[in-house]
């Protein structure tokens, strides 16, 4: 199936990401560049990044556009969930379009709703078959489409090096 893209990456976007990667002193430098690109493209009222730790048994938030609601705190154990099976085990993107989708996916759906958010895209960040973490964008109900998924999938590989750094690979 083909989708008409609402947002496309251009050479300047690619160059901005490449420059951020080359000049980054720490992973957060790359995270900010990715957030800026997502904000200019599909948009996100909440943008977070998670890495998998403890052999995929826990997640750690390494970036948040709203640290008051979603702080950069310690690790959180991941029990088995349908969302985890979809995104972390089967390495598929989650596109949630409304409050019912959010309730299905997230135990903290009440907090998400209190922020006025009811749509989400979660992109697994995968390197050589291993899920390293996720890119997460949330906005109002009905905000995201398959076109937005493709946009975020196209930029998500730039997160592999910073995630590997977070995980102590170098």
In short:
About 40% of the residues lie in helices and about 25% in strands. The chain is an alpha+beta fold.
Describe this structure in words.
With 170 residues, the chain is of the alpha+beta class. It has one domain (11-166): GAF domain (Beta-Lactamase, 2-Layer Sandwich). It starts with 10 loop residues before the first helix and ends with a helix. It is built from seven helices and six strands, in the order H-H-E-E-E-H-E-H-H-E-E-H-H. A hairpin with a 2-residue loop joins strand 5 (119-127) and strand 6 (130-139). Helix 1 (11-23) packs antiparallel against helix 2 (27-40). The protein is globular and about 40 Å long.
Keywords, separated by commas or semicolons:
6 strands, 170 residues, 38% helix, 6-stranded antiparallel sheet, alpha+beta
In total, the number of strands is 6
Multimerization status: single chain
As a percent range, the share of strand residues is: 15-25%
Identify the CATH homologous superfamily.
Answer: GAF domain
CATH class: Alpha Beta
The general outline is: globular
> Helical residue percent?
25-40%
Largest sheet: 6 strands, antiparallel
Instruction: Give the helix/strand class.
Output: alpha+beta
Give the neighbour order of strands across the main sheet. Answer: 3-2-1-6-5-4
Output the helix-strand order.
HHEEEHEHHEEHH
Q: Kindly report how far apart the N and C termini lie.
A: 39 Å
Return the domain count: 1
| DSSP summary: helix tally | 7
Radius of gyration, CA atoms, in whole angstroms: 15 Å
CATH architecture: 2-Layer Sandwich
CATH topology: Beta-Lactamase
Average pLDDT confidence is 93
Query: pLDDT below 50 for ≥5 consecutive residues: which ranges?
Result: none
């Amino acid at each position: 199936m083909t989708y008409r893209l609402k947002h496309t990456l251009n050479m300047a976007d690619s160059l901005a990401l490449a420059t951020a990667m080359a000049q980054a002193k720490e992973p957060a430098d790359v995270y900010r560049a990715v957030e800026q690109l997502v904000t200019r493209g599909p948009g996100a009222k909440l943008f977070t990044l998670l890495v998998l730790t403890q052999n995929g048994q826990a997640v750690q938030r390494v970036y948040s556009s709203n640290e008051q609601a979603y702080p950069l705190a310690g690790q959180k154990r991941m029990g088995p969930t349908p969302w985890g099976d979809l995104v972390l085990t089967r390495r598929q993107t989650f596109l949630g379009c409304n409050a019912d989708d959010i309730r299905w996916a997230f135990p903290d759906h009440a907090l998400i709703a209190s922020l006025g958010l009811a749509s989400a895209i979660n992109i697994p960040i995968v390197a050589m078959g291993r899920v390293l973490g996720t890119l997460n964008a949330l906005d109002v109900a009905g905000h995201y489409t398959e076109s937005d998924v493709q946009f975020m999938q196209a930029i998500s590989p730039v997160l592999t090096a910073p995630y590997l750094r977070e995980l102590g690979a170098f």
